[in-house]
Amino acid sequence: MKVSRRNLLASALAAGMAARVTAQENKGSKMANQKPWDTVVVGAGVFGAWTAWHLRKAGQRVLLLDAVGPAHARSSSGGESRMTRGLYGPDEIYTRMAFDSLANWKWLSDLAGLPVFHPTGVIFMFQKREAYVEQGLEVHRRLKLPTLELDRAAIAQRWPQIDSTGIEAGIFEPQFGVLMARRAVQTLVKQFVKSGGEYRVAAVKPPDAEKRVAQLEVGGGSTVSAASFVFACGPWLPKVFPRLLGPRIFPTRQEVFYFATPAGDERFGAGALPGWADYNDGDIFYGMPDIESRGFKVAHDKHGPPIDPDRGDRIASPGGLADVRAYLAKRFPALANAALNEERVCQYENSSNGDLLIDRHPAADNVLLVGGGSGHGFKHGPEVGRYASELLTGRLGKVEPRFSLETKAEQQNRAVH
Ligand SMILES: Cc1cc2nc3c(=O)[nH]c(=O)nc-3n(C[C@H](O)[C@H](O)[C@H](O)COP(=O)(O)OP(=O)(O)OC[C@H]3O[C@@H](n4cnc5c(N)ncnc54)[C@H](O)[C@@H]3O)c2cc1C
User: Fold this and answer.
1) Are 379 and 253 found together in one domain?
2) Are both 164 and 283 inside the same structural domain?
3) Of all protein residues, whose CA lies closest to atom 16 belonging to ligand 1?
4) Where are the beta strands (DSSP E) in 99-142?
5) Which atom of ligand 1 is found nearest the CA of 377?
6) Is any ligand 1 atom within 6 A of the Cβ of residue 234?
7) Are both 56 and 172 inside the same structural domain?
8) Same domain (yes/no): 31, 166
9) Average pLDDT per 10 consecutive residues for the chain, totaling 417 residues
């Protein structure tokens, strides 16, 4: 691939970062002429960026590539905000990962200039004290998390802007909150470059999936060589490995809405309201207070129809808007007729049951597949990156069964919430 100074600068500016321009690239020489990298990471979403960062921290020469840019508008990491929470019912593995990731999010937030992490706390509301509540509390007690149980009266007293009708149980996690998704990934890639990693825009040609990979084609007849390759391509994984992951990763269309809060009314701001998730008898809605004046965020967590991440306009459906408005009228009545500030259409890249995928390619042991964020992956980014880098560098000998390719079925049966 010919990398002109102009192209490099354009992509660096687009990503808001100063990419390293080597003398070799300035002369327009081919990437193939370079010494092989230790690892090439394909995909600069939250998973690829944290993996590249951890590998670099471990001393590797790392090249991070993305077809468009870090946390771009069509990527799954490209939204404004993502919730981080510890409650996962019985799934202690994700409670731990979310909690263990917090320190790195705070570190990133401290150096970003603007917040990456807003410690708003998160309130979970349940119509009945279901097994998920008991199991989640048991995990929190075991891990000694400072979690509070709140009944309906306590929720009504703390947050009268929530209509708590029908709620039997609440769980409040004061240490979690909201991550600024796009800002987080872009800041991290910038940090990765500062620490000596290299980032470039390149659309990688899917490799021959049947054998060990030595190099990748990156456009314009150029190749990059490395000892190992990580494919953290989010909802594009089924396109990159169609036979292997086409039947195992299910991208679904997800709509998100931001509503205007009444001028001068601070009840729906981050100082007054935590992030929230309403389990709503299994039909989950979730959202966030008005963060950085973007608006009050609401989304229905139900899986939408299948989506091709490359095609189609990202316009929400009238039905989706009506759905969240009906919900607002019930639970946040002061916002029932609030003006819509913005709508976003993103995609979940679901595995069959919601477990992450972090495993070696069965035909190429120098290729690591990282993905399956399934609508809850963002918060785990730092730990996913650590885990992936330790698998690659050999610090971790065995793949966690929950993350293995073997456990990824071809039928969807969502189990992780
Ligand atoms: C609406 C919505 C709400 C969500 N809410 C939450 C939440 O509250 N909390 C939470 O923890 N998680 C949440 N998630 C999930 C989370 O955002 C995703 O699981 C996570 O961002 C996935 O990141 P990724 O790195 O796997 O994929 P992506 O961010 O999509 O990154 C993949 C990258 O790979 C690149 N790529 C693909 N193919 C190629 C190629 N051939 N060559 C070069 N580059 C390539 C793409 O350009 C892209 O940038 C939500 C997701 C959505 C859509």
Assistant:
1) no
2) yes
3) 378
4) 117-118, 122-126
5) 19
6) yes
7) no
8) no
9) 38 39 36 78 98 98 98 98 98 98 98 97 97 97 96 97 97 98 98 98 91 92 96 98 97 98 95 96 96 97 97 95 98 97 98 97 96 98 98 94 96 91
